[in-house]
Specification:
CATH architecture of the largest domain: 3-Layer(aba) Sandwich
Mean pLDDT: 83
Pfam family, one: Cofilin_ADF
CATH topology of the largest domain: Severin
Number of domains: 2
CATH class of the largest domain: Alpha Beta
Subunit structure: Interacts with G-actin; ADP-actin form.
Shape: elongated
Largest sheet: 6 strands, mixed
Helix content: 25-40%
Number of strands: 11
Function: Actin-binding protein involved in motile and morphological processes. Inhibits actin polymerization, likely by sequestering G-actin.
Protein name: Twinfilin
CATH superfamily of the largest domain: Severin
Radius of gyration: 28 Å
Oligomer: single chain
Keywords: Actin-binding, Cytoplasm, Cytoskeleton, Repeat
Length: 344
């Protein structure tokens, strides 16, 4: 995952990272101070409690109502590298927007400096109930289970599964085969969940043709004028972008799904797979809590501009269609002729 702020851990925090892995520390809180990642406080381990028994007490004492922070909470399980940790990104709804964006954009840096391999899981909270033990278990359950469908949605889904057409012809524009559903990686799923919580405004995905999986390429916060520079010249991509704009005086945020296929520089197999996986992938995105306002297909990066996005999200409505006017005949035709019927 990419980061944009350039904020790094200060020397004190780096040294503490080296000392806190022996099991003596249960949790540590990290804040951004003076454009540096700094240790705010730490909580020593109570040997008489397992990680879940003291979770609510420890985490509850570290979070503040209006101030974002990061919390690294040590679990009791171990890997080859030592104890495994839970990474908590606390970004309350009541915090200033600038603070929330700053913490979201620096998160990848902190995880990298601590060690991604030792972070077993990650959760994000914006209200207190999401950073409790019960909230953690609900988050895990939601991450692996699709959102429940209504009876009508289940009926539509079943109809789509059975909707396979076999009427082939040269001019046919019907879908002749159902979409292909490829699984997405856990990293891609986590990024989509993060976007649903406003951690990122831009996600880029690719299909691994051999592995037949959808992978995350990058997740970050990108200005609209930098979108085109993020695209490769000769490889297809799926993009998710939270287009923040004003329309008729109102501030709006619209999630746009962009299917990018750079012409015929891609193989036939790639073009077929990206086309077939597009609809099932957007359905998966929706089930993870990201509501797509508009789907767009482009074949060049030059199409990815603020003006084009706006026109796609808010197409111009032609409310005053001109009345069809019968064209005048050619001049100098003379008077109309009268044609007699044969019976007269």
């Amino acid at each position: 995952m990419s980061h944009q702020t350039g904020i790094k851990a200060n020397n004190e925090l780096k040294e503490f990272f080296g000392r806190c892995r022996d099991g003596s520390i249960r949790a540590l809180k990290i804040s951004i101070c003076d454009e540096q990642l700094a240790l705010a406080t730490s909580v020593k381990d109570k040997r008489s409690y397992t990680w879940d028994k003291c979770f609510d007490q420890v985490v509850g004492s570290l979070v503040e109502e209006n101030q974002p922070c990061y919390i690294l909470y040590r679990l009791d399980t171990k890997s080859d590298l030592g104890y495994e940790w839970l990474f908590i990104s606390w970004s309350p709804d009541t915090a200033p927007v600038r603070e929330k964006m700053l913490y979201a954009s620096t998160k990848a840096t902190l995880k990298q400096e601590f060690g991604n391999a030792q972070i077993k899981e990650e959760i994000r909270g914006s209200i207190m109930s999401e950073v409790t033990l019960d909230g953690y278990y609900k988050f895990k359950k939601a991450a692996v289970a699709p959102a429940p469908l209504s009876s009508r949605e289940e009926e539509i889904q079943e109809m789509k599964r059975n909707e396979v057409h076999t009427d082939y012809s040269i001019t046919s524009k019907q879908q002749t085969l159902g979409g292909v559903t490829f699984p997405i990686t856990s990293e891609a799923e986590a990024a989509i969940l993060d976007m649903a919580r406003n951690s990122y405004n831009y996600l880029q995905f690719r299909i691994d043709v051999e592995e037949e999986k959808i992978h995350l390429v990058t997740s970050e916060n990108v200005n609209v004028d930098k979108l085109a520079s993020k695209l490769p010249k000769d490889s297809p991509r799926y993009l998710l972008y939270n287009f923040k704009h004003t329309h008729e005086g109102d501030y709006m945020e619209s999630i746009v799904f962009i299917y990018y296929m750079p012409g015929y520089s891609c193989s036939i197999k790639e073009r077929m797979l990206y086309s077939s996986c597009s609809n099932p992938f957007t359905a998966t995105i929706g089930s993870l809590g990201v509501e797509i306002a508009k789907k767009i297909e482009i074949d060049t990066d030059s199409e990815l501009t603020e003006k084009n996005l706006y026109e796609e999200v808010h197409p111009t409505k032609n409310l005053h269609r001109p009345i069809f006017a019968k064209p005048k005949g050619p001049p100098g035709r003379g008077p109309k002729r009268m044609i007699k019927s044969q019976n007269s």
